[in-house]
Specification:
globular, seven-stranded mixed beta sheet
Length: 425
Amino acid sequence: MLEAFSFIETSGGIEQWVHQSNDLQVLLYPDATAPVVTFMVTYRVGSRNEIPGNTGATHFLEHMMFKGTERFNKQAGTSVFNVLQRVGAMVNATTWMDRTNYFELLPKAHLPLAMEIEADRMRFARLSPEDVASEKTVILNEFDRGDNEPTQNLYQTVWSTAYLAHPYHHSTIGWRSDIEQTTPEKLRAFYDTFYWPDNATLSIIGDIDREQALAWVHQYFGGLPKSTVPRPEVTIREPQQRGERRITVRKEAELGSVMIAFKNPEGLHTDNDALDMLAMALGSGKNSRLYRALTDQGLTVAAYAANSRHRDPGLFYLFGYQAMGVRHAKIEKAILKVLKEVQKNGITQEELDRARQKIKTSMAFDRDGSYNIASELNEAIAIGDWKFYTEYVTRIGAVTVADIQRVAQTYLIEDKRTIGWHLPK
């Protein structure tokens, strides 16, 4: 059956294959540590691919995929959840800015069942008006829960302020009015644009036989055609920011928070490796600079930094959660002072080594087990290259203290920053 596929390359023990008839990508990673397999389908579509008036379509469609097909549906007693959970599978899906994924973690003997279901709903989702109407209520409730959570609200508001033209302006769940106005026809058009074998990658991780796994992929997915209509590319680029932006969110809560964000480069850019290390040095643990400058001084109850990597430029951001009686301006001033010190004097080799070790440790935990490996691969696919997963250790190994200071001076500047305050009502 290997003749139905083209072997592309291998990296870190992971093999990449492509089905010759429909360009479906397949990643294989045999690992017999446990008699289970994770099967994950990553579609290269996320909220980045949505347009005004149809925001939230990716997430809405993710929900609808569990309403099933003519073969697998609740009314027939063959819903996706029921059929897979009968054989002990863990099954779910997630949506993010640059991708959507569906996955099953299950005993290895049932891998063909997972493939059969995913192949069926790749092209034969029902999307009935009744199901769309019922699921709309579920999604609007999910929207309201997120909107009422102060930290999540501030986080999204800062993104929406930092990005004015690019689709990262809107959240993955979409604007409420767009969710309310979603129709089966809109979802069908979105589905027929992006849910095709040539816009998907299958990650098959675990106790597998390579040739048998590919034979099943061919059996279930080989008959699906690739799209005949070009998918719209996301060509818009966020205009250059030419000054600091500020936003205030007033929501009910006991304590407020401060978020300071800066635009970073596209996900695969090597400067993000240094920004990852800087975020770790600034915000991880009681030895970090933010903890010592803010929490240790009684300004915050917690503080951290993070670098979000996406296909297009994202955000490097810092969060401080207000301690009782401390003014937002004081927290903001303290965070900016920490950043100014890094820009002026950099960080020490000891801090860099500690940050590198923490990232390696975190990676070891994050990549433990077939599901975690597939999930990490999924994020690498999303930013544009699955080999980012296998090459990341080497990339962070190349970062120097000079790199840290340079990226701090390049990206963490006033004209590129957006500051958000959550003020409790």
